[in-house]
Structure formats: C-alpha cells, structure tokens
Specification:
The complex is a heterodimer of chains A (485) and B (341).
Chain A (H helix, E strand, L loop, with lengths): L7 H17 L3 H20 L3 H30 L6 H40 L17 H16 L9 H8 L13 H9 L9 H31 L6 H31 L18 H7 L2 H17 L7 H19 L3 H24 L4 H20 L3 H11 L11 H19 L14 H19 L12
Helix pairs in contact in A: 1-2, 2-6, 3-4, 3-5, 3-6, 4-5, 8-9, 8-16, 8-17, 9-14, 9-15, 9-16, 11-12, 12-13, 13-14, 14-15
Chain B lengths: L4 H32 L17 H10 L7 E4 L9 H8 L3 E3 L7 H14 L6 E5 L13 H5 L1 H4 L9 H8 L3 H16 L7 E2 L5 E2 L1 H9 L4 H17 L6 H16 L3 E6 L4 H10 L2 H15 L6 E4 L21 H12 L1
Parallel strand pairs in B: 1-2, 1-3, 3-6, 6-7
Antiparallel strand pairs in B: 4-5
Helix pairs in contact in B: 1-8, 3-14, 4-11, 10-12
Classes of the chains: A mainly alpha (485), B alpha/beta (341).
Chain lengths: 485, 341
C-alpha cells in the first residue's frame, strides 16, 4: 500500500493525525521524533523492507558529513600553519569519494543494474558472444532517486564549506524522511531547510493559509486535470497503431498536460503539506509551458533537479581542467548533463534519448541564440512548446518503435478529423482548459492566498474545490507519475 | 484596522470557514447518497433505486412461495436462469432460485442460514454456482448484503462497521450521477423494467427477450458492454480468500449435518469473455486454484461438482448468452442436465 497524497486515508487519517500531534508537541526534540516517525510510517507503508535502507543511508551520510567536516576543520588549522597537502585533506577527499560512490552505488544498483546488464547482454549478442549477465529481481525503492541526490548535495555542501553538518542525527533523520517531499521531491538541499529545522519549536501557524491553498490546488490539478486526461489518452497511447494524425496530436498534447499537472500538482501538495509543519520548500515549477526556449524550460520545470544538476554536475564539468571555461566545454557539458538527467528519470533507452534530445536542442539554441532571440515572443513560445511536447513523447514511449510510430502518425497527415467522437471532444476541451491555465494563468506560487476582500467566499470556494476533488478521487486513486523515479 | 493583527484574524477566519465549509459539503454529498440510495446500499427506501435489490426480494418471494422447496439454488445473477421446471422434470422435486446479484460466498452462506434457521426450510438438495470471483480476496462484502439486515446478521461481523466503508466508497462521481438519475426518474418516470423475477426466484430478462424476438439483439455489443465490468471483478484477485473458503466449508458442513445433497458447478462464461479475462487477469491461475481446492474438499465432504466454465466442453452454444456471463435458457438447461444427470 502506498500512502498517496491523493488518497482518502492520507487526507482524512494520516495527515490530520500527524499534524494535530505535531502541534500538540512543543519541544524541538519531540517534533523531530514525531516527524521522523511519520516519515518512516509513510515510507514503510509502501514497502517496510526498504525503510532500513533509508535509515542506513541517512546514518551513513550523517557520519560521513561529520567526518568530512572534522577533517575540514583540521585542514583549516593546518592551512593556517601553511601545510597545504595535509593528511586531513586527503582523509576528507577519501571520505567524500567513498560517500559519493556509496550513494551513487546504491542508486545504480537498484535503478540501473538490470538495465546495464540487459544492455551488455544485447551488445554481446551483436558480437555473437554469450555474456549471460544476470538480471536480478529488484524492486526500485520508492524515492531513492530523490533522497540519494539530497544526500549527495548534503555531503558536497559540507565538504565545500557551504553548510555545517546537521547538529544531531535526529534532526538529519527528520530532514531525510520528511514525508511531504520524501518520495517525489522537490529535491530539498539541507541549506534550504536547515533554518526551518532549527526553528521547528518556534514555528507558528502563519503558513496554514498558504498550505491549504497549495494542497487544494495541487489535489485539483492532479485529480481533475491530470487523472481525467489520463482516462482519455491512456487507451489511445496503448493502441497507438490505430491513431490518426489528429488523434496522435491530441494524445501527445494530452500527455504533456497530464505530466505537467500530475507532477506540478504533486509538488504543490508537497509544498502545501510542508507549510503545516513550518517548512517553506523551494518551488519546483514556474509555469514551464511559458518558456521561450528549452534552456528557459529547464529553469522552470522540476527546478530543484535542474538546480542540482547545474550546481553539482554542469558547473564542475565546465570549470574543471586547466584550460578554463570555453564555449566548446559548455556545450559538451550541456550534452553530458542532459544525457545524465535523462538517465536519472529512468533506466531505459527512451529516457536516455529524452535527455540527449534536450541536450542537443539546448546546444542548438545556444548556437543560434543571436537570431532565435530576435523572433517574436509568441513564435518562440510556440516553437518551444512543440519541442517540449515531442520531448514528452520520447519520455512516454515504452520503446523506440512506439516513439517512431506515433511520430510517424503525427506528421503523416492522415485520418481526417474525428470530431464526432465524444471522447475526443472531451479530450480537446480538457486540453484547451489545460492550455489556458498553463499559458495564461499565474503560477501557483504567485497567487494571492488570502484575498483582502471576500476572503470568506474564497475559503468556501476553495472548500468546494477540495470536496469536488475528493469525490472525483473516487474514480480511482492513481499514483503520481513521478513516483516511478 | 491596519494593525498587523488584522491579517492574522483574517487567516484564522479563513481557515475556520474553509474547514467548516469542507465539512458541510462533504456531509451534504454523503447525506444525498444515503437518502437517495441509488444502489440499494443503505437502509433508506425513500426513492426507488436503480439497482434491484434481489436479496430482500428473494427472501420475500420465498416466504410467499406456495410450498417449501426441496431444492435451493445459491449463486449470483448468472445462476438465476436455472430452470425450476426442468429441475422438477428431472428430479420430481420443487426448487427455488435464491441466487442474488453480485453474490460472494458469504451471500450463499447467509441465505442458506436464513432459509434454514428463520424460515425453517430444510432442503434436500443445494445447487451452488461457484463463481471464481465469489472467492476474490480483494473484494469487500457486497454493500447490498450489509444493507439487508436479515441476511447480514448471519455472517461474521467486523469490528469496524463496514457501513463506514460503504459511505466512503459512495464518494465518487458515478454515485452522484446515480443520485441525479434517480431524482430525474422520480420526476419523469422510471424506464420499463430490464428484467423481472418469477415467484420461484428465476429471472426473466424482458428487455433482452424482447430484442431477441424483434431480431435486434446484438450479442457482440452486449458482450463488449459487459466485458470491462466483468474483468474488473477479477482485477485485484490474487488468491482465493481464506474467509470465503471457510464460508463454503461452513455451507458444506451444514449440508452434511442435515443430510442435504450438494451439487456445485462453475458457471459458464462466453468464449470471448473467457478469452479476455484470461488475458487481462489471473483468472486461469485462480480457476486452477479453485479446482484444486474443490478437489481437496472431496476428502471431507460428499458432493457433485462440474466445471462448466468452458462452453465448448459440453458442446454448449457459443452464442447462447445474453452478455459475457449470463447464459440464455438453452445453455442454462444444458447446465442443469449436466448437473443432475
């Protein structure tokens, strides 16, 4: 059983109990314990066997960061004594490398072992070799991609001196197992939350209004838009061979909006839930479909992941080496970063292709920037949106044959306009509503959560939206798409 | 009123109104579902439901039956076509069809106990239609059984009232759609009955029979229409429910203790439906598990068992269906002959 944010058990049982008890507890320690317990119950309900893995990862990273910090302190003292190549520095480096290898190793083992193994086997077959690399029966621990990246950022930030390690193991456990963002992000760096964690005993209820707004909007996005669109497009994409040009575009556009409202709905809910415990998590979406180019898109889409890869992958790649920063280096780093970003999303060739596709297009944008940026805004927005939609098709496709077949349908211009089909008409209306919201309305974080006038009426409308979403939830509880990563 | 206290006051009011309004709307939806009761899942009877409540109807019909039946048929809606006249012809015994819609094994058990304990009828034979999905380990007790107090009191009661579950599961758009349909029908009149039950508990499908007479009956369309809901009954089934197996053994124990002969069969499924459900669900695995389980029961109990699920096996008419799982009279008679031969 996965305790989804969009489940009645979560909305009516888990969340009220956790928040009421949280507010009854007063001391820092009690609140850490309670949130950590809630996080582990939330996680354990999915698969209790992986809770020890989360705990072990947490303890390991806490200790590694402490050791790195201690060696760093010794190193600073020694530096003061002009002893640059000290033992402490070496120790710090070794611990840092080991910690990163352990974190990436775990992620690699659970997420990529079978993929790599099957790729090796396929490669061997091409060369008439029999490799028989094993395929293990592995379950991908929920949220491992997210908490591994949080752990790595913590270790690297401590190592570079940006942050001090967590004061106590309990505080760190609380950070790593914070249930609003545990399984699907946003990827919260310790530096972004440490102050709130430190003041957990002093928080007041001033964020409740924001929390309610974000949770209700997130739930409505997920249930009323993403899941409703999914009901129409899933059968179309499963039977993609019978799509026409028109229905192929409708299905792919529908999927783009489904993915956006699913993931941004989840993030809104996560941010909203965190508000009830005094945390301001970083925003993860900033109207990505308003982007003017693909670089801009990635600054607006899954922003916490983009920031992560930018800071810990792209920048080190561009600044490494003795020759300094060059254009070629930046473009190369872009391709590598986007390729790995694609791989982060899943162990599959289509995910690699998704990353590569974005990498190449971002590079192309930078090469043609001078002329491209002269185009009218509307044109740039349309071009970018079409490119995003094609990218999402790569993301959604189970195989290259599916991808090519749907792309073929999209650009073959066959099959006429099936307007008479009621399901297509409803899908088009949903796409139109989604497009209006995505292109013309404010981002959720820009909304006025408490209008000065008629705020009571606003509260009633918001409550109605919540109840409509809860009723619509009764169709079926659908897991968030990003849970699989 | 420009003090910093103002927004704080507004925030508190906002939260209070939000919570109270949400509670109000939620209660409103629940009350509408309970009062209108479109699916016969609650005990309220202000409006005529969309779904016929066979459980109460069968009990009332049996109470009014001309004699005490010697054969009782237990099963789901796909056993309602079993022909009491043919049974009489083959056995010279009177039978009553106590099969009810969407029945699970606890329905059979509750019905049998009610008939024997409260109506003081002791049959000579029991004919039991063993639907595989009636053993579904991931299917709750049917709300209509819970709503029928006379029967529900005969089965094990859970600690937490299942009515809470029924209320929660009624929170969905389709239920509200049913509420609105009931309100519309009560204003404009209900459509003609789809089917009716005869005094001996058998069903007559008026609409389908009419269509057959007119030559407008489209079996393929009916099968396609019922395919998804039929497959859904198996979708989350991973095992034969131990509790439901126990109910079957309790039925067999009651029969053994009262010298009641038991004849059991797995009902027939249309070939297309069977092919689809095998491809989409764990049907075949569950089917084999049920056969093994029935086999194991033979050591302890005496009963007749036939598996009629494959229409081809008994040369049944592949077109002798009303939809995926409901046989027509020809195939129903074939089942009775196989069972009683």
């Amino acid at each position: 059983m996965t305790l989804l944010f969009n489940s009645l058990q979560f909305i009516f049982v888990f969340f009220p109990i956790v928040s009421i008890i949280f507010w009854l507890l007063r001391s820092k320690k009690q609140r850490y314990w309670w949130l950590a317990l809630a996080g582990y119950v939330f996680y354990g309900l999915w698969d209790y066997r992986f809770a020890p893995l989360l705990f072990a990862t947490t303890v390991f990273n806490f200790l590694a960061a402490k050791l790195i910090f201690r060696n760093k302190e010794i190193e600073s003292k020694e530096n003061a004594e002009k002893n640059a190549e000290s033992k402490a520095r070496k120790n710090k480096k070794i611990i840092l490398v080991v910690a990163i290898i352990v974190n990436l190793g775990l992620l690699g083992f659970f997420k990529y072992f079978n993929f790599a193994s099957s790729m090796l086997n396929q490669l061997a077959t091409i060369f008439n070799l029999s490799l028989n690399s094993p395929i293990l029966s592995l379950i991908l621990p929920l949220g491992i991609s997210f908490y591994t990246f949080q752990s790595i950022s913590y270790i690297l930030d401590v190592s570079s001196g940006k942050i001090k390690p967590a004061a106590s193991l309990l505080e760190f456990i609380c950070y790593m197992s914070l249930f609003p963002q545990l399984v699907s992000g946003p990827i919260v760096r310790y530096s972004e939350i440490s102050q709130s964690l430190d003041n957990i005993d002093k928080v007041d209820n001033s964020r409740f209004v924001k929390g309610v707004n974000l949770f209700v909007f997130g739930l409505a996005k997920k249930i009323m838009l993403a899941d409703t669109i999914a009901m129409f497009i899933n059968p179309m994409l499963s039977g993609y061979s019978s799509l026409t040009t028109f229905t192929a575009w409708a299905a792919v556009l529908g999927y783009s909006f489904q993915l956006y409202f699913d993931f941004s709905g989840y993030t809104d809910m996560a941010l909203g839930l965190a508000c009830f415990f005094g945390f301001d998590l970083p925003i993860n979406f900033n109207s990505p479909f308003k982007a003017l180019n693909l670089s801009d898109f990635w600054r607006r889409w899954h922003m916490s992941l983009t920031r992560w890869v930018n800071d810990y992958l792209f920048l080190p790649l561009t600044t490494s080496g003795k020759k300094g920063i060059s254009k070629a280096k930046i473009l190369g780093a872009t391709i590598i970063t986007m390729f790995l970003l694609g791989l982060w999303h899943g162990a599959g060739l289509t995910f690699l292709a998704f990353g590569l596709y974005h990498g190449i297009l971002i590079v192309m944008y930078h090469l043609t920037k001078k002329w491209y940026d002269l185009l009218p805004k509307l044109i740039r927005r349309i071009i970018t949106f079409v490119l995003i939609v094609i990218g999402f098709l790569i993301f959604r496709s189970d195989s290259f044959s599916m991808l090519l077949a749907i792309l073929g349908k999209m650009f073959a211009f066959t099959g006429g306009l099936p307007f008479f089909e009621i399901r297509i008409v409803i899908l088009l209306l949903l796409i139109a509503a989604s497009a209006f919201i995505s292109f013309f309305l404010k981002n959720t974080n820009q909304l006025n959560y408490l209008p000065k006038k008629q705020y009571i009426i606003y509260a009633i409308i918001l409550a109605l939206l919540l109840v409509i979403s809860i009723v619509a939830l009764g169709r079926a509880e659908v897991a968030f798409l990003y849970y699989q990563f | 009123m420009n003090s910093p206290e103002r927004p704080r006051k507004q925030e508190k009011k906002f939260i209070l109104f939000f919570l109270l309004s949400a509670l109000f709307f939620l209660v409103l939806v629940i009350l509408a579902n309970v009062i209108i009761n479109p699916r016969s899942e609650f005990s309220t009877h202000i409006f005529r439901p969309l779904i016929k409540e066979a459980r109460a109807e069968k009990i009332d019909l049996l109470a009014a039956f001309k004699e005490k039946p010697e054969i009782i048929i237990l099963g789901s809606s796909n056993a309602m076509m079993l022909n009491n006249s043919l049974i009489k012809e083959l056995t010279n015994e009177t039978s009553f069809n106590a099969a009810v819609d969407a029945a699970r094994i606890e329905d059979y058990y509750a019905m049998l106990r009610y008939i024997m304990e409260d109506m003081h009828i002791k049959p000579k034979k029991l004919i039991i239609a063993l639907n595989i999905e009636a053993f579904n380990n991931n299917l709750e007790v049917d709300p209509r059984l819970i709503a029928e107090k006379r029967l529900y009191s005969k089965i094990a009661q859970p600690i937490i009232s299942p009515k809470i579950n029924i209320i929660i599961s009624s929170l969905n758009p389709y239920y509200i759609q049913d509420d609105l349909t009931v309100l519309r029908y009560s204003l404009t009149g209900y459509p003609a009955n789809f089917s009716h039950v005869t005094p001996d508990g058998s069903v007559i499908y008026d609409k389908w029979n009419q269509e057959k007479l007119l030559g407008t009956f489209n079996l393929d369309a009916e099968i396609n229409n019922s395919l998804n809901s039929f497959v859904a009954r198996f979708r989350y089934m991973t095992n034969l429910s131990p509790e439901r197996k126990q109910y079957l053994e309790d039925i067999l124990s009651i029969a053994k203790a009262n010298n009641i002969a038991v004849l059991m069969f797995i009902p027939m499924i249309s070939p297309k439906g069977l092919e689809f459900v095998k491809a989409e669900t764990k049907y075949e695995e569950m089917h084999q598990d049920l056969l093994k389980y029935i086999d194991s029961l033979k050591q302890k109990y005496d009963f007749v068992f036939v598996d009629t699920s494959e229409a081809g096996f008994y040369n049944a008419d592949p077109n002798g269906f009303y939809d995926v799982a409901h046989v027509d009279q020809g195939n129903a008679d074939l089942i009775v002959r196989v069972l009683l031969s």
